[in-house]
Amino acid sequence: MQSQIEIHTEPLNIQACIAWVMSPESGGIDIFIGTVRNATKGKPVVKLEFEAYNQMAVNEINKILKQAFERWPLQKALVHHRTGTLHVGEIPVIIAVSAAHRDAAFEACRYIIDTLKQTVPIWKKEFFEDGEVWVAAHP
Amino acid sequence: MQSQIEIHTEPLNIQACIAWVMSPESGGIDIFIGTVRNATKGKPVVKLEFEAYNQMAVNEINKILKQAFERWPLQKALVHHRTGTLHVGEIPVIIAVSAAHRDAAFEACRYIIDTLKQTVPIWKKEFFEDGEVWVAAHP
Amino acid sequence: MEITVLAFGIAKDIFGGQLITVELGDSTATTADLKVSLEARYPKLKQLASYMVAVNNEYAEDGGVITELDEVAIIPPVSGG
Amino acid sequence: MEITVLAFGIAKDIFGGQLITVELGDSTATTADLKVSLEARYPKLKQLASYMVAVNNEYAEDGGVITELDEVAIIPPVSGG
């Protein structure tokens, strides 16, 4: 399993992520880039703050990638996640997956981001003009 | 509908494609990058040649993007396709889709590449060490 | 009337060039007439998995009428992406 | 025994800090005992949609035993990505 997992406080490097997953055995790469949206349910967002339990987050992402490599014939998979303060348009997460055939790349990439949002100990606080809230904390 | 369709003889620019689809209204971008694989059914590939019926290809891609915008709530969608001679590792196609929510971006991106391969007048010839073949021409 | 036909991919190889001209008897020929004429001249065309005719950059139905002013192209099975 | 507990996200706000210490009666406490103790001290914890305990960087079952040597963390609902 060829994988790379990094948690950064600095801006993520899209070009480096894509270059890392490319391989001569691959026919396709699927990449998901999360971006900070300017509104949540119609309410303007000023900024986000991301906090991670770094060591455990890397462990949990590694489990997800292992599952993905077991389920699909992949070449390489990469997850970079950012922490700290991010403004609108900035990039909290990049997931990139290469595979001989595109179906595997698409399905694995989507599985990784969906599962990451459910199990990986990273938290996001949204700052609005009139207050702030930890996402998903309350029903 | 915010879309960009280009057919190039020069190498495609990943960074420019991603920058074009990013928008403050988007929460996620899905990108598919096709790459020339070093083998087809176990047979080493030397190079590929892509030929397009340019004007009609742009028309057909435009139809696909219109369908995608009708089916999913998208922000922007881009298709860049390359023609001419490509070697292993080079990039024939980039598809990038941004949307407020990632499900729409993933589904539309996959729909666009799947449909492009079925309807858009672009042809690929594979060159092996011992011969060449137009892909999909024969049963 | 004389129709100029654009060819791509394997059709270009079969015709031996990107452009050929086809003489169709009268002024109300259809894409079906064109196919019959081409297949008589280039039997290898029938060995393709399938092929389409495009008229003015749109896929054409078999009954579609062709005039000398139309841009006509032979579209063998596509394989982009 | 005294357990040091790491807190993240809204749990950090509820505890008023990233690290708190919790006195658990004996040396065979479980994550369930820890939860009871924390919820008594910080009633707001019960208002969360849910929360988990992690022991040594792994999600722990409710019956899991905790010792003073373990790295224990409170994991409120995650929202990365």
TrEMBL record, chains A, B:
It is an enzyme of class 2 (transferase). GO terms for biological process: Mo-molybdopterin cofactor biosynthetic process. The keyword Iron does not apply. CDD domains: MoaE. One of its GO terms (molecular function) is molybdopterin synthase activity. It holds the Pfam family MoaE. Its EC number is 2.8.1.12. Keywords: Molybdenum cofactor biosynthesis. SUPFAM superfamilies: Molybdopterin synthase subunit MoaE. It catalyses: 2 [molybdopterin-synthase sulfur-carrier protein]-C-terminal-Gly-aminoethanethioate + cyclic pyranopterin phosphate + H2O = molybdopterin + 2 [molybdopterin-synthase sulfur-carrier protein]-C-terminal Gly-Gly + 2 H(+). InterPro entries: MoaE_sf, Mopterin_biosynth_MoaE. Pathway: Cofactor biosynthesis; molybdopterin biosynthesis. Heterotetramer of 2 MoaD subunits and 2 MoaE subunits. Also stable as homodimer. The enzyme changes between these two forms during catalysis. Belongs to the MoaE family. This is Molybdopterin synthase catalytic subunit. It comes from Mucilaginibacter terrigena.
UniProtKB/TrEMBL annotation, chains C, D:
It comes from the Bacteria. GO terms for biological process: Mo-molybdopterin cofactor biosynthetic process. Gene3D superfamilies: 3.10.20.30. Keywords: Nucleotide-binding. InterPro entries: Beta-grasp_dom_sf, MOCS2A, Mopterin_synth/thiamin_S_b, ThiS/MoaD-like. One of its GO terms (cellular component) is molybdopterin adenylyltransferase complex. One of its GO terms (molecular function) is nucleotide binding. Belongs to the MoaD family. This is Molybdopterin synthase sulfur carrier subunit. It comes from Mucilaginibacter terrigena.
